[in-house]
Design a protein that fits this description.
Order of helices and strands: HEHEHEEEHEHEHH
CATH class: Alpha Beta
Low-confidence stretches: 3-11, 136-146
Distance between the termini: 12 Å
Oligomer: single chain
Radius of gyration: 15 Å
Mean pLDDT: 85
Helix content: 40-55%
Number of strands: 7
Largest sheet: 5 strands, parallel
CATH architecture: 3-Layer(aba) Sandwich
Structural class: alpha/beta
Length: 146
């Protein structure tokens, strides 16, 4: 195996450290289980805006990204998304809301529906991983090395 192949494999195996922001317990348990089954780690969970804001403020350097429900207890979480963008923290939306509706509220990025199959979660987290600042410092996986 070449050095490039080794670096590409290390990139793919690097687990993400994620914060989960979801107000529905059943949905949170489902997505957390799938995230961990995929080899990643949920390091913190928040279920409402003030809790999420507090934990994000204390999470500097501890998380690679966030899985975010755009509506927490009926309120838009767009202020959290803006805060994440300012900090350079990528996120995946956990929603079944129409994409045009979430885009109007200012949300961007990959999305996965609650209770989505594991492969859909993998795809969204792979996208998040490519946008993760910590991972961008690692050697990039290249198609010819896969």
């Amino acid at each position: 195996m070449t050095d490039r192949q080794t670096a590409a494999n290390q990139y793919r195996r690097q687990p993400l450290r994620l914060m989960l922001i979801e107000d529905r317990t059943i949905s949170a348990i489902d997505i957390e289980t799938k995230i961990e089954d995929l080899g990643h780690c949920v390091v913190d969970v928040a279920s409402h805006m003030s809790q999420a804001e507090d934990r994000l403020a204390r999470s500097s350097g501890r998380i690679d990204g966030v899985v975010l429900n755009p509506r927490l207890v009926g309120r838009s979480a767009s202020s959290l998304a803006r805060s994440l963008a300012r900090r350079g923290v990528p996120y995946v939306l956990l929603t079944d809301l129409p994409e045009d509706e979430t885009r109007r509220e200012g949300f961007r990025g990959p999305r996965v529906a609650p209770f989505a199959p594991r492969e859909a979660v993998r795809t969204a987290l792979d996208d998040l991983g490519r946008r993760c600042p910590r991972r961008s410092m690692l050697p990039q996986a290249r198609p010819e090395l896969a």
